[in-house]
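Here's my example:
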Amino acid sequence: MPRPDPTVPRPLPRPARLAAKALGRRWKLPAPLNAVQVRRDEAVPMRDGATLRADVYLPTTPGPHPTVLLRSPYGRGPGFGTMAIPYAERGYAVVLQSVRGTFGSSGEFTPVVHEEHDGQDTVAWLREQPWFDGRLGTLGPSYLAYTQWALALDPPPELQAMVLHIGPHDLAEAGMIDGAFQLTNLSIWTELVAHQERVGFLRGIVRLMTAERRLTPFLGELPLQGLGERFGGNPAPWFDEWLAHPDLDDPYWERYRATPAVHSSTVPTLLVGGWQDWFVEQTLYQYAVLRDRGVDVALTVGPWAHLGIDPAVTTPESLAWLNTHLPVKGAPPAPERPARVQVHVTGARTWRDLPDWPSPTTDRTWYLADGGRLDDDAPAQTAETSFRYDPMDPTPSVGGRILAGSAGQRDNRELEARDDVRTFTTGALRKPVEVHGGVRVRLQIESDNPYADVFVRLCDVEPNGKSINITDRLVRLDPAPGEEPHSGQRTVETTMPETAHRFRAGHRIRLQVSGGAHPRYARNLGTGEPPGEATRGVPVAHRICLGGPTPSSLTLPTA
């Protein structure tokens, strides 16, 4: 008996229909307009002879239909099917495509470098489909958001809306945030991709959620070169390549960037980010550039880390954005967005509707003082405090912007009890202090090794002593190429990634200072050797100067 043709449209399986119904209620979506049928394993030809595979979710109502495109390296299994069905139930044709070299698509997978041309060729294929009405929107998180920027490098005329969740436009910058290799994030992602086609969907979810624990022993090994091979799975040659190119000005990185699209696109764009997301700085940059050029852009930033984005918030917003710019015949009008910018204020545990981001603020400065204090006035007497960072016993990372279940806001008390961490804290606040924007830090610091890092973190200390991280940044002190090594006193000024947070009355504001956050950032081994090749570490002693003509300080933009 001949096997059925998978590309013939078939109704959704009953479990998928039941799941979609339950999620529609939970996410408070508009009522479905139609049933859905799906065409599996459609062949999409590329200009170089490769064939990419796609599943197409079609409304059962007569077409053609406005179409939503999702291009993913993570397969077309139940998780992404669940993402596609709500849109197909409300009148959109939804194309879920596996990018080159993944899940049945031919060719070799190299992160993001083929997405510009493959996206264009996919749109050329769409033009030939009888169910495509000539109006295109794009959708998706993370890597799927990058594919949208890649398509927008030369946007086809059909592209009328983009919806990007927690997504970068510059993979090079994402991999070397603050000039340091993002060891935890890049390791977890590489191990995920290397194994994802060897395990089923549910096992893959379990592997992702346990990756931090499983990989931690590997992340302490030296040298870092060869680490990707030690993870096992399918080859991931990019990991060692990235380690071998620590200079972001290296032409090697140009193929990993879609930055020109941010500066040229006029496509209406909804941006969704999270304050604890790996890519939040890029999301805010995208918003600012599009806004300044007069593009129709909206921004939503929740309290989420990368793996914790809430579809109950993002799915209704995404549907409304698409229905505004790609209206479906017979659908009720999309609800009007209450404000261009919607941000969740952590600490206050509430959402704010704002006309723009950041909102108007007033600077408030505290000064680092003896005894671990943050004072309103600069110290009258000069003092100092010191700590020693040993890369062979590195200061650990806690929470923050990582691809793991332990991401986000965490209790820092155990970390702050270490000898290699210094904290500076206000007294209990009499009135709330709400921060909107980037927190600035100035340190007068002297280090006895020119190859060193300083990690600064803003924390909210609750009345019970629990210290919760809000935002942070690592500063690499290494001399630039051709610059003389500097090991004396210097002024370090930096701005942490923007945030929206309320310090409640009775809470205290804390600045945390240390020499690193391993394995989130690959540790600075203090030798000046290439990061992938070094096998030994040299400690550094840091001395923070308090008081003086340009005193060390913390400045919050308060709303």
In short: Residues 182-245 form one domain. The chain is about 25% helix and 30% strand. The first helix runs from residue 14 to 26. The chain has a mean pLDDT of 95.
